[in-house]
Amino acid sequence: MWKRIKDTAYFLSFSNDREYEICVTDYVSVWISSHSEKAFLAQLKESNDGLEMEDIEFVQKGVHLLTNLDNLKKYSIERKENGKSLFITLTISLGFLFIFECKLSKGSEELYFQKVTRPLLNVIYDIRESESELRRLLLRKDKQIEEYKCEGGEIVLRHLKTIPYNDEEHVMKYRAYEEQFGACNKSPTFIKEVIEILEKNILKDKPAIHPEPAPKIKIEAGPSNMAPGQSVKMEPGPSIKMEPDTTVLTEPDPPMKVEPKQEIGEESNAQVVTASVSYKQVIKRENVRAHVPRKR
């Protein structure tokens, strides 16, 4: 709800649903300041330096001040930085002077639409709906009165007598709506349609913020006879230390023929490459006994 700050052209709206939010508008621009409960309390204490009371009392009196602007004892509103900042000082008498000082920052066009334009359009819609309903009701009442008179009824009290309602004369007298929105836009839902269009054009959805993907580790596998101690290229991300696994699993079938004097440097069908800062190739072979035919 917008409340006028005494005799000024400024209106203030205060909400403490989620945060302690203060908005001020002159119906040209809007300024806003949001506080957590802790920050709101700190602002009140700073504004009333030397005043001692419980924290909960500070907050209660601050809310009372911002919701009872008609009872202000003093007030001060000052624009600075070419209108980008608005400084307000509000003082109320509670048996002693209680002050609230605050700096507000100028809001965006989207904020002005949310806080000022859209609520005003909703008010116009509500008044328009109320007017349409009252006009229909008056026309029905006049028909009922005419029917009552036709059946021989009379209105005894003269001060209750009224002239019949003239709907065309009423419409011609109050033309501000038609001059603003056009005579062709008399539909009760027209204002709601305007609000929906403005919401699509002004309140554009912000792109969703996705968490950054975890860094990937790229391992460039070298040839099978990679020399021990050769480094492995990893990008990006910090170094990852992994203990080497010295066990190599081998399939029992088919049997692998291994020469008794095979060197480690020769090519082998089983090897393990581990991702670490330093690469160490480990090959474990089981001893294989050469086949010797038995003598008969």
TrEMBL record:
Pfam family, one: XLF
InterPro entries referenced in this protein's UniProt entry, alphabetically: NHEJ_factor, XLF-like_N, XRCC4-like_N_sf
Chief localization: nucleus
Positions of region (Disordered): 214-270
Biased composition (Basic and acidic residues): 254-264
Keyword hit for DNA-binding: yes
Organism in which the protein naturally occurs: Heliothis virescens
Limits of the XLF-like N-terminal domain: 2-105
GO annotations of cellular component type: DNA ligase IV complex
GO biological process, one term: double-strand break repair via nonhomologous end joining
UniProt similarity note: Belongs to the XRCC4-XLF family. XLF subfamily.
Alphabetical list of Gene3D superfamilies matching this protein: DNA double-strand break repair and VJ recombination XRCC4, N-terminal, Helix hairpin bin
Transmembrane domains' residue ranges: 83-100
Molecular function per GO: DNA end binding
UniProt subcellular location: Nucleus
Coiled coil: none
Protein name: Non-homologous end-joining factor 1
Nucleus among keywords: yes
Keywords: DNA damage, DNA repair, DNA-binding, Membrane, Nucleus, Transmembrane, Transmembrane helix
